[in-house]
Design brief:
The complex is a heterodimer.
Chain A: H1 2-13, H2 15-23, E1 26-29, E2 39-45, H3 52-67, E3 71-78, E4 83-85, H4 90-94, H5 99-117, E5 123-127, E6 130-132, H6 134-141, E7 144-148, E8 154-156, H7 170-178, H8 180-189, E9 193-194, H9 195-201, E10 206-208, H10 218-238, H11 250-259, H12 262-280, H13 285-300, H14 302-317, H15 320-334, E11 349-353, H16 357-367, E12 372-376, H17 380-399, H18 405-412, E13 415-418, E14 429-432, H19 438-451, E15 457-460, H20 467-471, E16 480-485, E17 494-499, H21 505-517, E18 521-526, H22 533-549, H23 554-564, H24 570-577, H25 579-593, H26 602-610, H27 637-644, H28 656-676, H29 683-694, H30 703-710, H31 712-726, H32 734-741
Parallel strand pairs in A: 2-3, 3-5, 4-6, 5-7, 6-8, 7-10, 11-12, 11-14, 12-13, 14-15, 15-16, 17-18
Antiparallel strand pairs in A: 1-2, 8-9, 16-17
Helix pairs in contact in A: 1-2, 3-5, 5-6, 5-14, 6-7, 7-8, 8-12, 12-13, 13-14, 15-29, 16-17, 22-28, 23-28, 25-26, 28-30, 28-31, 30-31, 31-32
Chain B: H1 2-7, H2 17-24, E1 29-30, E2 50-57, E3 61-62, H3 72-87, E4 96-100, H4 111-118, E5 127-130, H5 136-149, E6 155-163, H6 173-184, H7 188-195, H8 219-229, H9 234-253, E7 263-264, E8 270-271, H10 282-286, E9 308-318, H11 319-324, E10 331-332, E11 335-338, H12 350-362, E12 369-374, H13 379-389, H14 392-398, H15 419-422, H16 429-444, E13 448-453, E14 461-464
Parallel strand pairs in B: 4-5, 4-6, 12-13
Antiparallel strand pairs in B: 1-13, 2-9, 2-10, 3-9, 6-9, 7-8, 11-14, 13-14
The chains are: A alpha/beta, B alpha+beta.
Chain lengths: 749, 466
């Protein structure tokens, strides 16, 4: 009878839904009609992005819900595993040509969600998986939110990371829902909020625990259970046994009360604005626009707020910053795929040689993904330090409550620390992270090859030693590959994989698979001195040294490089990398590339090393580093060294802007040369590598996107200008010249 | 809160969190049989037959009632004395004593020994204590079985005790550390400096774990999720709980609970029967709010086992010894299996996994079993296990079996009530299950009984008789 009734209702009242069902954007279901006069309509999304088509169909369905007397409430849920709605369709926004068009899109979204918000029939959002951007805006327009307490369930407004703002009422609803400070935090950081945290913030009303296996798979049953619970609440809301009003805690009541006072609000705006200005250096327009939009709504009322939101959304969508960030987002997605396919043998046991900072870091990001990992060192002391690093890294997650102590222990059981080669006969991959010395690398390669099985991949973590040179002593060069991690490994997202002419496709597939498993964004480049990332950094650092020699002090260099958008100042960067390492690399690259890598005097570095100014690790470099001291001071011991190598400054190329451009043009020119020489296989990987590995300003989207937006011709002009003063270090490469000569040529279409 | 009112006497003002504790340690399963009659015998060549001569328990009481002022070894002592009285076994014959307990009283960490000495057993009889959550006394019994089978002993007393009226509440770790360091401080100055470091948070007490250590989830919460995973409704759970109470009441009134021995509590009246059996009505049970998954869960105080004080003991012997001493064994302990699985999502599914294993091991089928005694931690947990046993999908995807084992028929299942109604003093439940099975087999004229229980940590087991 139930089925009959459902069929009848569907045919009679929901002709439209049957149609949409064919198009697979929605499935509309009517649960149990008998025994309850409250009919709950379930609207189940079959896609996970908000597109134009989806919104128009969705609006139609909502209209039918309101028109149909039998329906008393509705539940919105998704049938896409792993996501509720992961955001708006980015293609849809990118396809717009003008800011007006985008603003129009935003207004349509606003209207649709306002309709839900004002619906006399309660609408419940049942959230499992990512609820991001437009998805979150949809959820908060509903009257009630129920989320599964799973790791995959995250709520966030990542628009700011794409240079946008929440454009479908999010900027207006969030402050009312979670209070002004929390709303700013959510929107300005774009960070992921787990379900339990969201519940505490008041972003969701109920949590549903994920279920284990029953007579269906855990995933399927959990979604079904979520739907059942949501239906219960939808019924309760409709017959008023459940109230959508949530009781706010004392703190939130106080905050709300304070925020109602215009003066206090102004102070909050001011504080947040100052903080944003300081952090973005004015390079990112989106955060300020978010503040402006929230302000408009709270100070000038509903209409002004929504208008500001759509207008600002439109304006932001056409900025070059947004395009750059969007490019990075797409690049990231591209670099999260394994273009070499699935490796023949999955890596299950990994061995890491060298328990230093890098080795232990690699071990940490491996064990927590379930890889059995052997960490081998030659000395007990070094091994202890490395194991402690892994423990500390995981334990900090326990302290942040993203891991339980039990999970930490069980993850650590994947790690074996040892001094010998025991168990290497079962290793599927060995990553060596020993000292950067070709002789040591050769020694361990030979030792390892004597004990590993035939299928085992040998990967070298080196920042500059050519892989083919390392592979020269290998009996099986097709199994040798470079995996260049960045320090600190657990936080830096990039992995640069280097293939030689002899490296086999399967070896590459295996290395990429491991990198992706470790959660890395992977670029794959050809072998050569400095590969891609180190090579780009070389000329820039040489220029930094020259600028220092010309009398610009380290603080000033840091200030002008961060003003350009680098997250770390250029002088600080050298301290972080380590002056000895920088010297080593600079010498190697200088030998390989000659004059082009000149500029500053390498002798300056050598003297620093001699004096023990090795950078942060030694407590002294360009700066003095002391535990617990936040404002580090310039190392006065450097004065003498800098004086000794002093060069006359050339006033025609020494304005702040010129110094910035000298650093950046050398970087970009070298990147272009890597593409020209085939080290890089695509500009996308070049951009991703530069931004995620070297901190190239994200607002510029990477060297290649920067050439596109700055103009190849303009860039070549700058290079020529500096070439006239300093010579061949600034000679633009052929590829850049080609692009400069043909204005229609772009690296990114 | 309402739950507590229903199930805990008024004068009991236990902290509410203790209720969760009850939820945190419940599951057990085992199987047993009386002497072979018609069906095949399971005697194994070369292995001694091991028999249950007798078993007793003191009445199971809701915690905070008549046993509230006693210590665990007092309860255990009463059970052991009861066993001595009922069997008149000469104390010097007992070779060994094994006892189970879950929440340990630190003063009597080897509670087996303290209780045995106090109960008048010989001081020459060694005793040790085992712990394995809710199947601790099953572990005690199988330890005894192992000792007899290995030829170490002929006569073993096994049992279990739990006193939930009193649990060890500790100082915080910081405070303990300060106090221990204080012991070593020599000068007044050192002592004062240590004392000056004490902060208000040092005084926060540490309650016994109310949750599974590995997952931080309380047992009740896990049971609610399990019930949801198998789509067991609130109504089904309440109906099952009502059945348990109704059957227990019938058994109690009909004098079927033969294992109960009276206990004269010092300063109080003699306790003669379990006091948690309260057949209620569906309406009343329906009024209770969910106790763990709030506000929409299905596990309530009425469909969960409650915090209980109690102790039990059984006398195990090799068959030849029992016969030589002139005893008529009540049952043969034929086989047992311990299994364990995922402590998060399958914490309470032990019986499902263990039942087919022990049957296969013994060469029996479900149809051969005349009496099923399953530990009832939660009505939802029992019903989920029954559904799991009846699901081909579950058998294929999680148990690596071709097909389901099938659910036991309810007319043979926990027909004299269960932990939901009789109570569940964690470590004492195992012996109760075994004795109920033995008595039930005798009354029904059955041959094989199956006892199953699950325990915290996801370890259940099965014991199977003749």
């Amino acid at each position: 009878l139930d089925d009959l009734l459902q069929g009848f209702i569907l045919e009679g009242f929901f002709s439209h839904c049957i149609m949409t069902q064919d198009e697979l954007n929605f499935i509309v279901k009517l649960p149990c009609l008998l025994g309850s006069w409250f009919m709950v309509l379930i609207c189940c999304f079959q896609v996970n992005t908000l597109s134009k088509q989806l919104s128009s169909e969705f609006t139609d369905i909502m209209n039918e819900i309101w028109a149909n007397e039998a329906v008393k409430s509705a539940v919105l849920i998704s049938s896409k595993p792993g996501s509720f709605i992961a955001g708006a369709d980015l293609d849809m926004i990118e396809a717009c040509k003008t800011s007006q068009e985008v603003a129009q899109l935003s207004q349509e979204g606003q209207k649709m969600l306002e309709k839900i918000e004002q619906s006399p029939k309660p609408v419940v959002a049942a959230i499992s998986g990512s609820c991001l951007g437009g998805g979150l805006e949809l959820a908060i327009a509903c009257h009630y939110r129920i989320a599964t307490k799973e790791k995959k369930t995250v709520l966030a407004t990542p628009e700011v990371l794409l240079g946008l703002l929440p454009g479908a009422g999010g900027t207006q609803r969030l402050p009312k829902m979670v209070g002004l400070p929390a709303a700013f935090d959510i929107m300005l950081t774009g960070r992921n909020i787990r379900a339990d945290r969201a519940k505490k913030m008041g972003l969701v009303d109920q949590l549903v625990d994920p279920l284990g296996p029953g007579v269906k798979s855990p995933e399927a049953r959990t979604i079904e259970y979520l739907e059942e619970v949501a239906i219960d609440f939808a019924r309760g809301l409709a017959n008023r046994t459940v109230s959508a009003k949530r009781s706010k805690g004392l703190m939130q009541k106080l905050t709300d009360y304070a925020m109602a006072v215009p003066f206090v609000r102004q102070q909050v705006y001011k504080t947040v604005e100052n903080k944003v200005r300081k952090q973005t250096k004015g390079l990112y327009p989106a955060p300020l626009k978010i503040i402006e939009t929230v302000k408009a709504g709270l100070d000038q009322g509903h209409d002004a707020g929504y208008l500001a939101e759509s207008q600002n959304f439109g304006q932001l969508a056409v900025t070059k910053e947004s395009k750059a960030l969007l490019g990075l987002y797409r690049g990231q997605v591209y670099c999260k795929k394994n273009k070499f396919g699935t490796p023949q043998q999955e890596v299950k046991t990994l061995a890491v040689l060298g328990a230093g900072l890098m080795g232990a870091g690699i071990a940490q990001v491996s064990v927590d993904k379930g890889l059995k990992t052997i960490l081998k060192d030659t000395a007990q002391q070094g091994l202890d330090r490395g194991q402690q690093q892994v423990f500390k890294g995981l334990n900090s997650k326990v302290k942040k409550k993203s891991l339980t102590s039990f999970e930490r222990d069980s993850i650590l059981s994947n790690l074996t620390g040892q001094l010998d080669y025991k168990g290497f006969e079962k290793a599927d991959m060995v990553i060596e992270a020993v000292f950067e010395d070709i002789n040591i690398k050769h020694k361990v390669l030979k030792e390892v090859e004597a004990v590993i099985p035939a299928h085992c991949v040998f990967a070298s973590n080196t920042s500059a030693l050519p892989i083919s040179q390392i592979a020269a002593v290998s009996k099986r060069p097709e199994k040798v590959i470079g995996m260049h991690y960045f320090s600190p490994v657990d936080r830096m997202q990039l992995l640069e994989i280097i293939t030689t002419d002899k490296t086999s496709q399967d070896t590459a597939a295996s290395a990429v698979a491991v990198g992706l498993k470790q959660g890395k964004i992977v670029i794959v480049v050809k072998d050569g001195p400095g590969f891609y990332t180190t090579r780009c950094l070389g000329p820039m650092l040489a220029e930094v040294v020259r600028v220092l020699q010309e009398g610009t002090d380290p603080k000033k260099i840091d200030a002008i490089s961060t003003a350009f958008g680098f997250p770390v100042g250029a002088a600080t960067l050298i301290d972080e990398v380590g002056v000895d390492v920088a010297t080593h690399v600079a010498e190697d690259l200088g030998k390989a590339f000659g004059e082009r890598f000149g500029g500053g005097s390498i002798e300056l570095f050598k003297l620093m090393v001699e004096k023990g100014f090795l950078g942060r690790k030694a407590g002294k470099g360009f700066y003095i580093y002391q535990e617990g001291v936040k404002n580090r001071s310039v190392n006065s011991g450097m004065d003498e060294i800098l004086a000794r190598f002093k060069l006359p400054a050339k006033p025609e190329v020494c304005t702040d802007e010129d110094i910035q451009m000298r650093l950046v043009t050398r970087f970009v020119n070298e990147a272009a040369m890597c593409l020209q020489e085939g080290i890089l296989s695509s500009p996308v990987e070049g951009d991703i590598g530069a931004v995620f590995g070297l901190g190239f300003p994200p607002c510029l989207g990477g060297p290649f996107r920067y050439v596109d937006s700055y103009g190849a011709k303009q860039l070549v002009d700058k290079l020529r200008k500096y070439e006239a003063v300093y010579g061949s270090q600034f000679t633009p490469c052929q590829l850049l010249l080609d692009y400069a000569n043909n204005p229609s040529k772009k690296f990114h279409q | 809160p309402t739950l507590l009112l229903t199930y805990v006497p008024k004068e009991n003002n236990f902290p509410r969190s203790f209720f969760k504790l009850a939820g945190s340690l419940v599951n057990i399963t085992s199987l047993l049989a009386v002497q072979p009659k018609s069906k095949k015998t399971l005697t194994k060549s070369g292995v001694k037959n091991i028999v249950v001569v007798e078993g007793v328990r003191i009445p199971f009481l809701q915690s905070g009632t008549s046993y509230a002022d006693l210590m665990p070894h007092d309860l255990a002592r009463a059970a052991l004395q009861g066993l001595l009285n009922r069997t008149s076994v000469p104390r010097e014959v007992v070779d060994y004593i094994v006892y189970g307990t879950v929440i340990q009283e630190v003063k009597t960490s080897n509670v087996a020994r303290e209780a045995a000495l106090g109960a008048g057993f010989s001081d020459k009889t060694p005793a040790h204590t085992v712990t394995m959550a809710c199947i601790s006394s099953n572990q005690a019994m199988t330890t005894g079985v192992g000792m007899i089978a290995a030829g170490q002993c002929d006569v073993v007393v096994a049992g279990g005790v739990e006193l939930m009226s009193d649990v060890p509440i500790r100082h915080s770790r910081k405070m303990r550390k300060t106090m221990l360091t204080l012991n070593r401080a020599k000068t007044l100055g050192q002592k004062l400096s240590l004392l000056s470091k004490i902060r208000p948070d040092y005084f926060a007490p540490e309650l016994p774990a109310v949750a599974e250590f590995s997952t931080s989830e309380t047992m009740g919460h896990s049971a609610d999720r399990l019930a949801a995973a198998f789509a067991v409704s609130r109504l089904e759970q309440d109906e099952y709980a009502l059945r348990s109470h109704t059957l227990a009441k019938k058994a109690q009134d009909g004098g079927l609970l033969l294992d109960v021995v009276p206990f004269k509590v010092p300063g109080k009246d003699t306790v003669t029967k379990d006091n948690g059996i309260r057949p209620s009505s569906m309406e009343q049970m329906g009024k209770l709010k969910p106790a763990f998954v709030k506000p929409y869960g299905t596990v309530t105080a009425a469909n969960s086992s409650f915090l209980t004080d109690g102790a039990s003991a059984v006398l195990l012997m090799s068959e030849e010894k029992a016969l030589a001493m002139g005893y008529k064994p009540k049952a043969y302990l034929r086989d047992f299996v311990y299994v364990s699985q995922d402590p998060k999502d399958q914490l309470l599914l032990g019986p499902t996994y263990a039942t087919p294993k022990v049957l296969e091991k013994a060469g029996l089928t479900m149809a051969d079993i005349d009496v099923f005694e399953f530990h009832e931690a939660f009505a939802g947990q029992i019903l989920a296990n029954l559904k799991a046993m009846d699901s081909d999908w579950f058998a294929q995807n999680y148990m690596g079996r071709k097909s389901k084992v099938g659910a036991p028929p309810l007319e043979k299942f926990n027909t004299w009530g269960g932990s939901l109604s009789l109570g569940h003093p964690f470590a004492a439940t195992g012996c109760r299950l075994v004795m109920t099975t033995a008595h039930s087999l005798k009354k029904e004229g059955g041959q094989y009984g199956l006892v199953a229980a699950c325990a915290a940590g996801g370890l259940p087991k099965c014991v199977l008789g003749p």
